[in-house]
Amino acid sequence: MNAENQVNGNGSSASTETEAASLTKKEAAEMFNVSEKTIDRWGQKYELPVAPMGANGCRQKRYVLAGLRQFSEKYQEVVERAGSFSLMSDEERRGYLSRGEALLESGKTRIEVIRTLAQESGRSREAIRYLLKGINVMSLKEREQCARTQEASQWNLKHIPTEEFLEPDAEKRIFTPTPENEKARRTKPPAGLPPYLASLYETPLMSREQEQHVFRRLHFALFRVSQILPEDLSQVTQEELEQAQKYMQIATEDEQFIIKSNLRLPVSIAKKFARGEEMFDLVSDYNMSLMKAVRMFDYSRGFKFSTYATYAIKNNASREFDKENARKRHFANGKGEMLDETADTRSDETALLIEQGRNEEQARELMSCLDDREVEIICRRYGFGIEEPETLKTVGEALGVTKERIRQIQSRAERKMRELSTLQSRSKTQSF
Residue 329's pLDDT is what? Predict the structure, then answer.
């Protein structure tokens, strides 16, 4: 017995006259064999008549039965289609979803898929749209566009342009084979280096002519990529991406060649500052300085890159050496608090401070300004809650990212902690 019959049957003696002439939302849904959400949607779209609330103690929203009958007669197709959808079996749903995925793979857009499925199934577009809700209904074209945008957005296009790049025959003159270095020779590595570091000396330094040629080609390739790609990367076409990829490949190969030819520089400088196991850490830091120097070097001035890179690395090394001495004096005098205003941006200073057990509680207080990922990295790197601190590589493997990305997040987190500490210190000073 359906909801309408229940209301009009002999068992309605306990119902009031208002209730007998109306149905609850649930009863209306049963009457039409649809969901209660469909009743809500019909109520808003078709203004289904609602019985006065509060009459005879009736507090629940009820729909006038006569009005529901009129709606059913006037919109018979709507009611039948909705009722048909509610009776769709699980097997039919899976079939429609499978068909939808196939249409998406063929290149159709979401709107085209909904239209096609509606025509094939005889159901409304709204029903199909609801069926596909919550699943990945991105078309093949849209997925390809997202992939293109993601790839292009990851490229580092920093370069130093010159007027030569704008000349009509620039590409023909610049994209030529790298000249041979006839005077190239291997340099004997310093004594006591591990085999891996010693092997870096097998690659000879570039000649001045080679440097000029490779750097010019590197920056011109990056210049061309920046010209090809649209300002809005979400609009990059497949043709533009493929063209940019060719130039990006040239730039990547040239950049790697430059770095490989100069990897001995970080090693030789690190030997002057490293103590014991610090060697590999310093080499890693100075390698980063070398990589940054490649994009910053202006080859058009005629200087050798090895001179520029050596200066850049030594400048970084000297700065860190001075900071290390300042830290030693700082702790020897017993002055200052953890992460005070004199703290620099280096991770190793924070390590010296955090590793002191008496400051762990203060460190955790400062970590209140960090997000969950930053807190986890700080705790892992400095051994909070675990047996011993973990290396950048170990933390990176645990979180599924590179150790350089861990270094960046750690540096950002430590900066936040220092800024919070500075604010707290200033607040205490003002309170006095």
Answer: 60
Q: Categorize the per-residue pLDDT at 343 as very low, low, confident or very high, splitting at 50, 70 and 90.
A: very low
pLDDT for res 360:
54
Residue 106 lies in domain = 91-137
* pLDDT (average), residues 7-16: 41
What is the three-state SS of the chain? CCHHHHHHCHHHCCCCHHHHCEEEHHHHHHHHCCCHHHHHHHHHHHCCCECCCCHHHCCCCEEEHHHHHHHHHHCHHHHHHHHHHHCCCHHHHHHHHHHHHHHHHCCCCHHHHHHHHHHHHCCCHHHHHHHHCCCCCCCHHHHHHHHHHHHHHCCCCCCCCCHHHHCCCHHHHHCCCCCCCCCCCCCCCCCCCCHHHHHHHHCCCCCHHHHHHHHHHHHHHHHHHHHHCCCCHHHCCHHHHHHHHHHHHHHHHHHHHHHHHCCHHHHHHHHHHCCCCHHHHHHHHHHHHHHHHHHHCCHHHCCCHHHHHHHHHHHHHHHHHHHHHHHHHHHHCCCCCCCCCCCCCCHHHHHHHHCCHHHHHHHHHHHHHCCHHHHHHHHHHHCCCCCCCCCHHHHHHHHCCCHHHHHHHHHHHHHHHHHHHHHHHHHHHHHC
Residues 48 and 113 in one domain: no
Question: What's the pLDDT tens digit per position in 124-137?
Answer: 777 788 777 755 65
Region 247-267: mean pLDDT is 91
Residues 179 and 310 in one domain: yes
User: Which CATH number goes with the domain that contains 236?
Assistant: 1.20.120.1810
Quote the pTM value.
0.48
Number of domains in the chain: 4
Q: Give pLDDT, residue 325.
A: 64
Assess if residue 160 is contained within a domain. Answer: yes
Q: 200 and 263 share a domain?
A: yes
Q: What is the pLDDT of residue 7?
A: 40
405 vs 384: CA distance, rounded Å: 20
Is 381:352 a contact under the CB 8 Å cutoff? Answer: no
Give tens-digit pLDDT for 160-214. 888 999 999 999 999 999 988 877 666 777 777 778 777 887 788 788 899 999 9
Confidence of residue 215 (pLDDT cuts 50, 70, 90): very high
